[in-house]
Amino acid sequence: MFLLPSNAYLSWWLQVGADGSKSNVRQVAGIKTTGWSYPQSAIICTVEHTTANDCAWQRFLPSGPIALLPIGDNFSNIVWTMSPEEASRHKSMSSEDFVMSVNRALDFGYGPHPSSSSLDHYMEKLFSGSGHTAASTKECFEVPPRAIGLISERMAFPLSLMHSHDYVSKGLALVGDAAHTVHPLAGQGVNLGFGDAAALAKVISEGVSVGADIGDLSLLSRYENDRKAANVAMAAVLDGFQKMYSVDFGPLNVLRAAAFHGAQYISPLKRNIISYAMGDKKSPLFS
After folding, report:
1. Cα 11 to the chain's mean position, in Å?
2. Cα Rg for the chain, rounded, in angstroms?
3. Domains of the chain (ranges, CATH numbers)
4. Angle CA(38)–CA(239)–CA(261) in degrees, nearest 5?
5. CA 21 to the chain's CA centroid
6. Sign (positive/negative) of CA torsion 205, 162, 67, 266?
7. Where is the FAD-binding domain (predicted)?
8. CA quadruple 25, 31, 32, 36: dihedral positive or negative?
9. Residues 111-160: pLDDT tens digits?
10. Which residues does residue 149 pair with via DSSP β-bridges, in sequence order?
11. What are the residues whose beta carbons fall under 8 Å from the beta carbon of 162, sequence distance 6 or more?
12. Counting Cβ atoms within 10 Å, is residue 234 exposed (0-12), middle (13-18) or buried (19+)?
């Protein structure tokens, strides 16, 4: 129970910690975490286009991926992973120079546009008769819409992986970044948070329907048991991607390219990966 400034008392059955990676709720509750830092930072901001952007774009660059994420009308959010030194430089440059750097990174700045390779022709020949080739393999490379202006402050923050030892205690539940943070390279942090919120809401609803105390640990543990395994698995996948793209080694580069081409050309596998990323499936493999 809390005493408010108005001298009224506020009581509750359940406190939900949804206050980010540096969660005060988690810290006050004494919940421990495990994790590590990446040698990267991310720049986030909002840019404007001349036309509406209705597609999410991502390009993997030597220092990390840049993502262009539509938020409605002619605006998109930028999430750009780079070294801490680069992040500091991009944060301090003029708005005009930053917009030019964004357009360069999304278009031609780090080499020519992707084109069909011998690996593409081999994969197409291998799977052309199976009936499982994804339609997107016929699509040509498209340049993302150009940014024409910066309309928000640029924020830079260090990247890390963090996972709470516990999601719940008596009268308390953690969701989203308060419970776990992952590398932003696949944009999965928000999906994991949505999954947490949906799972917790379901458990609360079930508890209310039978008259249970929604802060009871045995009830809240059902939420933790449902979400922890899925979140740990996704964190491990993203950490693996981060490490895989941090190494420039010939044989590994070939294997990496072959794996991604396989996911592109095998339609059932591609659908499973998409469903897994959306939280609809427990595994990215066939099931």
Report:
1. 35
2. 22
3. 36-107+143-162 (3.30.9.10)
4. 125
5. 14
6. negative
7. 152-232
8. negative
9. 666 665 555 555 555 555 555 555 555 566 678 899 999 999 999 999 99
10. 48
11. 21, 33, 34, 35, 180, 181
12. buried
Phi, psi of 58 (to 5 degrees): -150, 140
* 121 φ/ψ angles, rounded to the nearest 5 degrees: -65, -40
CA distance 19 to 25: 7
Per-residue pLDDT of the chain (287 residues; tens, 9 = 90+): 555 566 655 456 899 999 999 999 999 999 999 999 999 999 999 999 999 998 989 888 888 899 999 999 999 999 999 999 999 999 999 999 999 999 999 987 766 666 655 555 555 555 555 555 555 555 666 788 999 999 999 999 999 999 999 999 999 999 999 999 999 988 888 889 999 999 999 999 999 899 888 999 999 999 999 999 989 989 998 898 888 777 666 676 677 666 666 666 656 656 666 666 666 666 555 45
212 contacts 262 by C-beta, under 8 angstroms: no
The token duo for 143 is 């340049």
Helix and strand numbers (H, E) in the chain are: 8, 12
Q: What is the pTM of this model?
A: 0.76
What is the total residue count of the chain?
287
